[in-house]
Amino acid sequence: MSELRQTDHEIDTLFTNRWSPRGFNQDVEIDSSSLWQLFEAARWAPSAWNSQPWRFIYALKETVHWETLFSTLSEYNQSWVAQASALVLVLSKKSFVAPGQESAVLLHSHSFDTGAAWAHLALQASLKGWHTHAIGGYDQTRVRKLLNIPEDYQLEAIVVIGQQGSKAHLSEVLQAREKPTPRRPTVTFVSEGTFSFND
Q1: Strands 153-162, 105-106: pairing kind
Q2: Phi, psi at 44, each rounded to 5°
Q3: 8-state DSSP, 174
């Protein structure tokens, strides 16, 4: 564990070993088995009513699907994402049909539940020697149009997947940031019984 990642309480190193680099190895392709292991881990995330609102649309490097999704990224993100192995668009379905019902209703926890699935995916990736980096810097309107995404699905993030590589292709600013980041102390976001945060 790095000096920047000292825990306040004892936890498994699985959590502190996971981080989001931008320096990826452009020579490594992710194989189908490894990629689907990540989706399988996401499958087992908890969700309200077991509704499983998460959806993933993936694109592998050097495919037409990659070029489509990559083209929607901001110029800043394209500068480092180009070295990665796969892109995954994360969506959440905003409605569901409850057991015993016939009509769909709003699923208030669709983003919350999909966040749990994304965390499962990221941790499984880390276990298998892959790295993930979730980004929000992309043109949502273009993504929705190019991928024919209905309005009932919320765009959550694009996840970059690859194996960590050299940071030489990164700008000097990004090279300086290419390390695991610390976290706020646990006591700053946990309160017993009432709201007492000093944000």
Answers
A1: unpaired
A2: -95, 15
A3: H
Phi, psi of 137 (to 5 degrees): -85, 75
Rounded to the nearest 10 degrees, what angle do helices 32-43 and 110-127 cross at? 140
Q: What's the pTM value of the predicted model, to 2 decimals?
A: 0.95
Question: Length of the chain, please?
Answer: 199
86-93: strand order across its sheet = 54-60, 86-93, 153-162, 131-135
CA 168 and chain centroid, separation: 24
At 120, the amino acid letter reads H
Q: How far apart are CA 158 and CA 132, in angstroms?
A: 10
Rounded to whole angstroms, the Cα distance separating 189 from 198 reads: 9
Q: Which residues pair with 186 in a beta bridge?
A: none
Q: 96 is written with which tokens?
A: 């569901």
pLDDT digits (tens, 9 = 90+) for 113-143: 999 999 999 999 999 999 999 999 999 999 9
pLDDT number for residue 3: 72
Q: Is 145 left (phi over 0), alpha (psi -120 to 50) or beta?
A: alpha
Identify whether the C-beta of residue 116 lies closer than 8 Å to the C-beta of residue 46: yes
Closest C-alpha among 121, 192, 198, 197 to residue 156: 121
